[in-house]
Specification:
Elements: E1 32-36, E2 47-49, H1 52-59, H2 71-74, H3 82-91, E3 98-102, E4 119-120, E5 126-127, E6 133-134, E7 137-145, E8 154-166, E9 170-175, E10 194-195, E11 202-208, E12 212-218, H4 228-231, E13 254-259, H5 261-266, E14 274-281, E15 294-295, E16 303-309, E17 325-331, H6 337-341, E18 342-350, E19 361-368, E20 378-385, H7 395-399, E21 403-407, E22 412-416, E23 426-430, H8 432-435, E24 445-449, E25 452-454, E26 475-477, E27 495-497, E28 509-513, E29 536-537, H9 553-556, E30 581-584, E31 587-589, E32 593-595, E33 601-603, H10 620-625, E34 631-636, H11 665-676, E35 687-689, H12 696-709, E36 713-716, H13 741-751, E37 758-762, E38 765-768, E39 775-778, H14 780-794, H15 803-806, E40 818-821, H16 827-835, E41 839-844, E42 848-851, H17 867-884, H18 894-913, E43 917-923, H19 931-935, E44 942-947
Length: 969
């Protein structure tokens, strides 16, 4: 310090205190990126999570696999979700947040057939003679009420009750008493119209190339032991049995998909007399690519249809489909989880009462799908929203309109939109006119567009018997090439019905409809204590008057066809322009809510156009003042992009060794997720792991990404160390150990990775799932993520994450309980592994399970061939880089150099004090930053460090001396 800094007036000694021991403020804590599947949550984008309780809220709890249950309806939890355990292991140490990338099925835009995401049955419908189907596809069962049946020629309108999905060489055909006859079918056929038995049950013959024929009796009463979902296989994975996943003894060539109990209950088709027929479903003549059995595409988001404004015109001309579109809600990355678990309500609709504006207000509420108006369960809400784009309460600003999209050219996520997302579930898309303030400010959300609907088949007429064959034909329904469709010579545009074997063909008339969720009719339904608490629009209860939710409602809003866009109201995408789609299920408007003379409020579509007592747009205030200001809309059309026929749709055995982006959607999904975090300016991380991924090309790519970033360590798993059931169900317990330490060491050497930015461990370990108590095997990356976190929490990032002090898995170092290893390694095994840079996880009789190595994958010997040193250098580079930004764009002069030193030296001193380095030297002067570098606007400094080394080998000489020897010699 210059003497000019002192103030000399009278003689004396002047002392100034200089503190060089300060510790600069650290940057935000940086943790790992974990890539994996989860029950729910935002997908294919990095999400920062601070604690495991937050993780459970966002992504769901751990999943141990073997979930069983109704997989078709409730979701696939047959394989462990290893990423959820890795998150728990790390976050339990409370040392830093994680960034989680949840996976959903993706595909390259140029992908070949093998590279397309999603699923399809093994073969789509095909007919040889108009009656006998070979192959698979989707097959629906339509039920006709006894009230709609008239004699033997009029069926009335049938309601779709269930959909089966068949693989090749399988059939699901009704059998029993023919409609209009006492005869019993001896050889059932598709299209045969069968009446319910005296117990109101139906019977089908399941025919399978695997197990022959089987007869199943069932009904649609979910309180019955014969309920259809209890009677049939609902696990799509059993259709790929007989080799890869399940043994042939448990294989099925079909699974039961959607069932629609609510609609059947409303139509008095449950527990009542009636008739039914089973027919194949496709949505166009191109049955191989359009229809519910062909779901080959990447994941897509569920949406809520466009919310529309109230009618401002004359009641007699009201058409809700022509109403002004205002906004709609789109999932932020949840796939089909959103429409299976959530719905949206608009409530508290209020006209403006302020003289300064004509814009009114309303609330947007995300609710649980299976709550009821009697017991509302709110997931999140946004109150006092307005359509005024200049207001702080503008609905887009309240909810957020930002969304991410993958840029395939630059392989990065791009964000679009104006307002940050305040909703965990959705973002808002505004109508351009509303956003521009070009619509009438009196408009308020007053209704919505329902989902697209598969076309109703309204004409069943007889053609010719030619080509139908002889024998037990009985009733056959051939259908036009839209909606439900049978392809064959005899039945392209009509229906045929024969009463008994070889009897005269009789024309049949009737129609087939596809299901639509009920809309609330009366405000008094459900016995609400206050009728104004009723939400009009979608009603999810078992009956109109019930207070219990119907669990089938989620099936109504599935993604029915790859041809349906997420916005069927856009130009050229009206539902009627899509093969097999008739239009919208409905367009709901509160303008069609009427008041009776007794003051009861009820909804009837089209009532605004009718003459009578109703609340129209002119008197909208009457409706709102009466308290009827709420309605509910569904989300629809979400899709996860997974192959539902596989326990783990990303299983390693399904990714070929030579897989690429274009020939494997599994490979592309993983690679896109890894590439998402490849930019260090987009995501901060110091570790990267994809637990359970063992594909050499992808794990090698992880190491490459970390090396290119130069600030992260890839924690990878090796192939075939343990083969879990979802990879090969049929394997014996002995066969699940797919390699040996020697073979694993050789395989890794042959890969020639040679990078200090990667590491790996051996073997797998056993843990206990917290929520269920179930034991399961997890890859070592899961346990090691916990060890790295707990080691850092106990000491620092530069201490070796191994040994009995910090690597004792039995003692809880993993953050999750570890109770076993797939292989007990001998001393020779450990030597073999360690020589090949594979870190052993050892099991000792007296000491338990311990991590017994900390090498990186670097072949050359240097300080960086150890994990603790690599993590030290990553830490130093990242922290010094952050500190250095404080002098960026400052003048390149000595004073700035001194400031730089004053930032960095205390930091390095602190690391030295904490045993990260034994010594260091910082050089920044004219010898580093030369005049020519100054002319290039460059400050150049050198930092030399001596990393502290961990003790890995202890050598002790025991000298045995004779009695007379002196220890001083």
């Amino acid at each position: 310090m210059s003497v000019k800094s002192f103030k000399f007036v009278s003689p004396g000694v002047f002392i100034n205190e200089i503190d060089n021991s300060f510790i600069p403020k650290s940057a935000d804590k940086i943790g790992p990126v974990i890539v994996g599947r989860a029950k729910r949550g935002l997908a294919m984008q990095p999400v920062k999570v601070e604690s495991f309780s937050d993780f459970v809220t966002m992504f769901g709890d751990t999943v141990p696999g073997m979930g069983g249950g109704d997989i078709s309806r409730d979701g696939n939890y047959q394989s462990p979700l290893y990423g959820t355990y890795a998150a728990k292991a790390f976050l339990n140490a409370n040392v830093a947040p994680i960034t989680y990338v949840r996976l959903l099925g993706q595909q390259d835009s140029n992908g070949a057939s093998g590279g397309i995401a999603g699923w399809q049955t093994s073969k789509t419908p095909a007919i040889n003679d108009g009656v006998n189907f070979e192959g698979g596809g989707a097959f629906g069962m339509w039920l006709f009420s006894s009230a709609s049946l008239s004699g033997t020629t009029v069926l009335g309108t049938g309601s779709l009750g269930a959909v089966w999905y068949l693989n090749k060489s399988a059939s699901v055909e009704l059998t029993g008493t023919l409609l209009g006859s006492k005869a019993t079918v001896t050889g059932s056929r598709y299209g045969t119209v069968i009446v319910a038995d005296s117990s109101y049950n139906y019977t089908v013959v399941l025919s399978s190339s695997l197990h022959g024929e089987k007869t199943v009796t069932f009904n649609f009463d979910d309180t019955s032991d014969f309920f259809i979902r209890k009677s049939f296989n609902t696990n799509p994975q059993l259709t790929t049995a007989g080799g890869t996943f399940y043994p042939s003894a448990t294989a099925k060539n079909y699974w039961l998909g959607e069932t629609f109990e609510q609609e059947l209950r409303d139509g008095s088709l449950i527990g009542a007399a009636g008739a039914a027929a089973i027919l194949p479903i496709a949505l166009s003549g191109s049955v191989s690519t359009v229809g519910p059995a062909y779901m080959r595409q990447a994941s897509r988001e569920a949406v809520a249809g466009w919310f529309i404004g109230q009618d401002l015109g004359a009641s007699g001309s009201f058409n809700p489909e022509l109403s002004q579109k205002l906004f709609r809600l789109k999932g932020r990355g949840h796939g089909e989880w959103l429409h299976k678990n959530c719905k949206v309500s608009i409530e508290k609709v209020r006209k403006s009462v302020a003289a300064s504006t004509d814009y009114g207000s309303f609330s947007v509420v995300i609710r649980k799908l299976h709550d009821t108006d009697n017991k509302v369960e709110i997931m999140e809400r946004f109150d006092k929203c307005t359509l005024d784009p200049t207001s702080p309460n503008f609905v887009a600003r309240k909810i957020g309109d930002k969304y991410t999209s993958w840029d395939t050219t630059n392989r990065m996520l791009k964000t679009y939109g104006e307002y940050p997302n305040n909703s965990k579930f959705v973002y808002i898309e505004m109508n351009a006119d509303v956003e521009a303030g070009a619509t009438d400010p009196l408009l308020l959300p007053f209704g919505y567009f329902g989902p697209p609907r598969i076309a109703t088949i309204g004409r069943l007429l007889a053609l010719s018997q030619s080509g139908l064959g002889d024998g037990a034909l009985n009733s056959y329904l051939g259908l036009p090439q839209s909606g439900a469709y049978c392809q064959g010579a005899a039945a392209k545009n009509g229906a045929l019905m024969a009463l008994g074997n070889n009897q005269t063909i009789t024309p049949v008339t009737g129609a087939l409809s596809f299901p639509v969720v009920r809309l609330r009719v009366s405000a008094s339904d459900g016995g609400l204590s206050d009728a104004t608490k009723a939400y009009f629009g979608m009603q999810n209860t078992r009956t109109a008057t019930s207070t219990r939710a119907d669990l089938s409602v989620g099936d109504f809003h599935r993604h029915w066809s790859t041809a349906i866009t997420d916005d069927p109201t856009s130009a050229g995408q009206h539902p009627s322009a899509i093969p097999g789609i008739m239009g919208y299920s409905y367009v709901f408007s509160m303008n069609d809510v009427s008041a009776s003379a007794a003051g009861d409020y009820s909804y009837q579509s089209g009532s605004r156009r009718k003459v009578g007592n109703h609340v129209g747009a002119v008197a909208m205030t009457t409706l709102l003042d009466a308290g009827y200001d709420s309605f509910t809309a569904p989300f629809w059309g979400g899709f996860d992009g997974w192959d539902v026929k596989k326990p783990d749709p990303l299983y390693n055995a399904g990714i070929a060794a030579n897989a690429t982006n274009t020939n494997s959607y599994e490979f592309y999904t993983y690679k896109r997720a890894i590439d998402t975090v490849s930019d260090p300016e987009f995501v901060d991380m110091n570790l990267l792991t994809v637990p359970g991924l063992t594909h050499d090309g992808l794990t090698g790519h992880m190491v490459d990404v970390c090396e290119e970033r130069a600030d992260s360590l890839a924690l990878i798993d090796l192939a075939s160390v343990y083969i879990p059931p979802h990879e090969a169900y049929y394997a014996s317990k002995a066969d699940r150990i797919g390699t040996t330490p020697t073979a694993a060491a050789t395989a890794l050497k042959n890969r020639q990775i040679d990078s200090s930015y990667g590491c790996t461990f051996y073997p797998w370990v056993q843990t206990r799932d917290g929520p269920t108590g179930q034991l399961l095997w997890v890859p070592p990356s899961v346990a090691m993520l916990g060890v790295l976190a707990s080691s850092q929490a106990k000491t620092d990032v530069w201490f070796a994450p191994a040994g009995f002090n910090r690597g004792g898995l039995t003692d809880g170092a993993a953050g999750i309980p570890v109770v076993g290893v797939t292989e007990r390694l001998t001393s020779k095994n450990r030597d073999t592994l360690y020589e090949s840079n594979i870190n052993p996880i050892a099991s000792f009789p007296s000491s338990g399970i311990v991590v017994f190595g900390q090498k990186t994958l670097q072949e050359r010997q240097s300080a960086l061939d150890r994990i603790n040193v690599r993590r030290l250098v990553i830490y130093l580079k990242k922290q010094i880089s952050i500190l250095s930004t404080q002098i960026l764009f400052e003048q390149n002069v000595q004073a700035t150099w001194n400031r730089f030193k004053s930032l960095i030296e205390p930091f390095l001193t602190n690391v030295k004090t904490r045993f990260g380095i034994t010594d260091y030297r910082l050089i920044l002067d004219e010898s580093t930053t030369t005049p020519d570098l100054i002319d290039q606007n460059i400050l150049y400094a050198k930092i030399m460090i001596k990393p502290a080394r961990a003790i890995e080998f202890i050598a002790i000489d025991f000298v045995i001396a004779s009695t007379g020897a002196s220890f001083d010699d």
